[in-house]
Amino acid sequence: MGKRILIVGGGIGGLSAALACSRAGLEPQLFESAREFNEVGAGIQLGPNVVRILGEWELSAGLSAVAAFPEQLQVRSAISGRELGVLPLGARTVSRYGAAYATIHRADLHALLLDALKARGGVQLNLESEVVAFEQDHNGVALQCADGRQARADLLLGADGLWSRVRQQLLHDGVPRATGHLAYRALLPQSSLPEKLRSQTITAWLGPHLHVVQYPVRGGEWLNVVAVVQGHMGGDIAYWDHGAHVVNVRRSLSQTCAPLNDLIHAIERWRLWGLSIRAPMRSPAEFAQGRVALLGDAAHPMLPYLAQGAGMAIEDAQALSQFLLTDGRSVPAALNAYAAARWQRNARVQARAIRNGQIFHATGLIRWGRDAAMKLLGERLLDLDWLYRGPAR
User: Fold this and answer.
1) Which residue(s) pair with 389 in the sheet?
2) What pLDDT digit, counting tens, does each position of 188-238 carry?
3) Residue ranges of the chain that CATH labels 3.50.50.60
4) Catalytic residue at 215?
5) Buried b / exposed e along 36-74 (16+ C-beta atoms within 10 A)
6) Fold of 39-105+114-119+177-277+362-393
């Protein structure tokens, strides 16, 4: 009999963990508080480090059916519109890293993972199961749901996101802090846009105190747009899906170049997300203690400025399943090995994402230096070999 694992959270991280562990011969049970498995949000970028893992999980065909595979990533000035740097993707990425660079709607990736998990059978998927507490001892872990139900297994995995309850009980380290950055997100059919605004390229527009990223999803038929500006929002920052008035986005980006301004004015519906963050990981103890471990945003929430939040959760899931598969190793030893193998890479990605946010929004001499360096060394700066080759195995 394989190790039994309780997984809290039915998002991309939780589904990835359940799928990876099931493939490794483990026995996962997944607990999701919502009434149905449903992922909201907009687009996700998947670097070759992530696409390669999805291929190992036999999801390449499904990914190809729903994702887009841009031929390049370009960086432009949000003010002048001029090109600052370009990274070729497509065949170059496959040749260099053994996998493509993909862009996908979050809901499509979620459905791909869920369908694969259901097709395997034997995995318990528990909906309307809000986990409120857990207890661990030398023999296992027990969790308790809000409705009084309980479950027990060999280990517990908290994959319940930025505001993780599992993390709160395990680490007692407070809540994430607001960054002062607001992300306005839009997703729309490319057919609804004028021809000149349609795109099959990843484009990052950088400006003072703001940036915008756009890329195709759903086979290139839809366009995902994210505009990040500096500011604060009222209300509960834990809830991302706030209705956002079009006028706020247009006002924030009113000084941008004509091509970008035209795109912003062509979009009639935005959602607002107040970005929150934790400091980069400082030790493996933030990943696992005893028979309880964390995964994805529950362990290492990341700002979206390196496009690796979902990717790091999928990497976590693959690593966790492999360490748990090792014969003769106790659960705490396996989780300690998982934490030791993952924490520094995730800390590096967290720190790089924070730094990117500062660079993207730079002003004055720093902005001038950024643009000059990008123009001179664009491909070398954009091609993150240490990241895209994946973790050492």
Assistant:
1) none
2) 999 999 999 999 999 999 999 999 999 999 999 999 999 999 887 665 555
3) 1-37+127-175+279-358
4) yes
5) ebebebbbbbbbbbbbbbbbebebeebbeebbbbbebbb
6) D-Amino Acid Oxidase; Chain A, domain 2 (3.30.9)
- Topology of domain 1-37+127-175+279-358 in CATH is FAD/NAD(P)-binding domain (3.50.50)
H helix runs in the chain, sequence order? 12-23, 48-56, 60-66, 90-97, 106-120, 165-171, 246-252, 258-266, 309-325, 331-360, 364-382, 385-388
Answer yes or no: pTM beyond 0.70.
yes
Q: Which of 101, 184, 215, 305 is catalytic?
A: 215
SS3 126: strand
**From CA 346, how far away is CA 310, in angstroms rounded?**
12
The residues facing 272 across adjacent strands are 184, 242
> Dihedrals φ, ψ of 323, to 5°?
-70, -35
Q: Is the pLDDT at 331 greater than 80, yes or no?
A: yes
Residue with tokens 């479950």: 151
CATH 3.30.9.30 residue window(s) in the chain? 39-105+114-119+177-277+362-393
Distance between terminal CA atoms of the chain? 26
